């Protein structure tokens, strides 16, 4: 069964992930050969800084000309771990044109141009695998698109960004404010110098787009994902959450509408009950909760980032793509047949926790309650506390659409007796 | 891309799982067609009791002659959900001989005869998939054999039997004894009238054999798995566990030895810290914790049994096998190239919690400690409590081999001052 010609791999990028991929390809060469059915060899490594010492990689494999590498024609699999839109997109497309299959860890690119890349792969009869693009080492793309291929997925809800989970977990456990927790995350290497992509939810939104696309067999682009960062979550929000028996997580939530005719995808901070499995996901770990018709509730948990975990996912894909290549087959491509419309955020239905600063005088609660009623938002609980003529009113609603809640809040702001809306947070996972 | 000839499926067994497979094949026919690339049709259903009403299944599909069904020659995929060794084994082998691929949920058969079945599948160039055989709906077989194919798995530790987890969770949360908790599990339908397979660990041992085989690329048979049931776990054990900040779970543990040269597989009750992710797995849920070189710690969680969840796993396999068939390919077969020896239980190294009833007089602790030392078992903590001339001594050890611990206990029993060994429990997950 063993064929002798080695499969040739071109590695694009040799940073934290790429160097780990190269290392494991060397140290675990015998295992990879046995599992693939043929040896697999590193045929070239495209880097930006060729002068850097790269332990364990033969210097003659290093090149700065990534385009020439993917055009060589003898490359079986291109592993793209450079990230970003360009030149990654052009290189992947060129790779397909020159006969290679592709393994990518590029969430931003997949979220933005997944459809075009899948089309290019299919046109050339090649594989495009990207387990590492979502939640690092956690097997998620393959379980969603293969294990659950006979089921109907209704919701995917997860913690898919380790940096923000580290910060929120720190705020929860120590009572720290956002800035203090961010500073610690930065000092420990969990947050980048510019943390925008993480804390503003861009990274999570890209993953939500990819997950929603796979789960619902529908194209979901990054622009379709509602996104709200977690920079405005306060210690006071955590105190409110605790009173409700909740904690706060930055969640990516992909849902099928109750009538099944549309889907939504969103990223925002949310309160979840402490009893929910996602509530106990600590530090920089990721976890994704999946609900389907037949399987029920599943959860996948593990490290969501880092060189080794991401390399594990890349290498799992590499083995699959190599096996497909030897067998003359390709794995599952894009599945977007359902083509469901992606509804705007206004259509999302969930519960809300609203903190209002109000005048402490008779009739205020009646006024506030009337505004909720007028907008069709049913109130579950109200908690009022006040001193010195000022009062705080915490309202938790039943399920209502985001549009109805937005209308309610706009009207509340116009009331003379409402001094301010201190915070609005969605309540999920119940 | 769509071919028109439908793929024909023969269903062997139409009980809780089989009827759910048939139902979903009908209700989700359009989705399955889109995901497979061809329609899939139920071509026959083999049952023992043909007179029973089977809603949604055309009566002409029902047969009692399973052998004739798998021999028809026009069957693409045989779905075996009858369980047990025979006639399942003969039917699967016959199916391969007559050109069909097989999806099975049969853990007992896979654990006992997996190698022979894989060989038959390979000989005939057919697929053998069995995601449903381990942990129901939880994607586990595919992640282990595909997602982690580029990684090195060192440990698989999980709760793979829902019945026993329900009983232990009940004992933990209510203080009930084993019999009381079992009675409740039986009344609620979580335990069968004869619960032996579950409570004695046979079911979990079969799953451990399958998981160890996949994780370590080594053949592990049911006979290789050390097995200890949970019928002797007492309310007192739970009280002891609580004092240590632990709970008790029935665990299946598959480990690579520290030198990497051998593996072990075992099923027994064990104390695990409350902080471990497996400690919070409630009721009849299953969860499996996987540790690998590159990915680190992963966990997979979900319903481990039941008609719908098991059907979800069967249908995921069915889609994959159908896709392979259309593409003229087969998925990954048995991977046993590593062929590591399976070490006996005596070689397993872990920690132990031992409760002794001893005479309450000076020198007893010194005697007991000497016995541990003579057998090379290092003591971590000792807790002594006594009244009326009798005392209880709880010893928690550092890591030691099962053989050393067994020798220690034998020697302890011979001490005049030791009245009895009340319980010995392993401590895992630290």
Automatic annotation (TrEMBL), chains A, B:
- Pfam families, sorted: ACT, Homoserine_dh, NAD_binding_3
Question: Per UniProt, which keywords does this protein have?
Answer: Amino-acid biosynthesis, Methionine biosynthesis, NADP, Oxidoreductase, Sodium, Threonine biosynthesis
In its keyword annotation, does this UniProt entry include Cell membrane?
A: no
Q: Which residues form the ACT domain?
A: 353-426
Pathway the protein contributes to:
Amino-acid biosynthesis; L-threonine biosynthesis; L-threonine from L-aspartate: step 3/5; Amino-acid biosynthesis; L-methionine biosynthesis via de novo pathway; L-homoserine from L-aspartate: step 3/3
Describe the reaction catalysed, as an equation: L-homoserine + NAD(+) = L-aspartate 4-semialdehyde + NADH + H(+); L-homoserine + NADP(+) = L-aspartate 4-semialdehyde + NADPH + H(+)
Highest taxon in the source lineage:
Bacteria
Amino-acid biosynthesis: present as a keyword of the record? yes
Task: Name the Enzyme Commission number(s) assigned to this protein.
Answer: 1.1.1.3
Required co-factor(s) are: a metal cation
* Entries under InterPro entries matching the protein: ACT-like_dom_sf (IPR045865), ACT_dom (IPR002912), Asp/hSer_DH_NAD-bd (IPR005106), HDH (IPR016204), HDH_cat (IPR001342), HDH_CS (IPR019811), NAD(P)-bd_dom_sf (IPR036291)
PANTHER family, sorted? HOMOSERINE DEHYDROGENASE
| Family label | Belongs to the homoserine dehydrogenase family.
Q: What does this protein do?
A: Catalyzes the conversion of L-aspartate-beta-semialdehyde (L-Asa) to L-homoserine (L-Hse), the third step in the biosynthesis of threonine and methionine from aspartate.
Protein known as: Homoserine dehydrogenase
């Amino acid at each position: 069964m063993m064929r002798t010609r080695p499969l040739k791999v071109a590695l694009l990028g040799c940073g934290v992930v790429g160097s780990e991929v190269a290392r494991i390809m060397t140290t675990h060469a015998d295992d990879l050969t046995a599992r693939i059915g043929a040896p697999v060899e590193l045929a070239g490594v495209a880097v930006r800084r060729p002068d850097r010492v790269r332990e364990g990689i033969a210097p003659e494999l290093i090149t700065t000309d990534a385009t020439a590498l993917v055009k060589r024609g003898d490359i079986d699999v291109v592993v793209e771990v450079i990230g970003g839109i360009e030149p990654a997109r052009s290189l992947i497309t060129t790779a397909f044109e020159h006969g290679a299959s592709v393994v990518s860890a590029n969430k931003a690119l997949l979220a933005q141009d997944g459809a075009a890349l899948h089309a290019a792969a299919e046109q050339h009869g090649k594989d495009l695998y990207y387990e590492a693009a979502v939640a690092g080492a956690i097997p998620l793309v393959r379980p969603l698109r293969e294990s659950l291929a006979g089921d109907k997925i209704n919701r995917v809800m997860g913690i898919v960004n380790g940096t923000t989970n580290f910060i929120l977990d720190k705020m929860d456990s120590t009572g720290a404010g956002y800035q203090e927790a961010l500073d610690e995350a930065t000092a420990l290497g969990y947050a980048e110098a510019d943390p925008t992509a993480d804390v503003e939810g861009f990274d999570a939104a890209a993953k939500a787009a990819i997950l929603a696309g796979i789960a619902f067999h529908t194209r979901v682009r990054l622009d379709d994902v509602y996104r709200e960062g977690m920079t405005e979550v306060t210690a006071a929000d955590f105190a409110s959450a605790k009173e409700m028996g909740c904690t706060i997580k930055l969640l990516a939530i992909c849902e099928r509408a109750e009538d099944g005719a549309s889907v939504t995808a969103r990223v925002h901070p949310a309160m979840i009950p402490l009893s929910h499995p996602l509530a106990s996901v600590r530090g920089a770990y990721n976890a994704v909760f999946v609900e389907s018709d037949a399987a029920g509730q599943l959860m996948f948990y593990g490290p969501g980032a880092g060189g080794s975990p991401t390399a594990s996912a890349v290498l799992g894909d590499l083995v699959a793509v190599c096996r497909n290549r030897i067998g003359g087959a390709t794995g599952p491509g894009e599945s977007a047949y359902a083509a469901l419309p992606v509804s705007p955020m206004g259509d999302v239905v969930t519960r809300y926790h609203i903190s209002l600063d109000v005048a402490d005088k008779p009739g205020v609660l009646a006024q506030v309650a009337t505004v909720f009623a007028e907008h069709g938002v049913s109130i579950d609980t109200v908690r009022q506390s006040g001193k010195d003529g000022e009062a705080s009113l915490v309202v938790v609603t039943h399920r209502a659409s985001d549009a109805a809640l937005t209308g309610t809040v706009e009207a509340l702001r116009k009331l003379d007796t409402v001094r301010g809306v201190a915070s609005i947070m969605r309540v999920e996972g119940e």
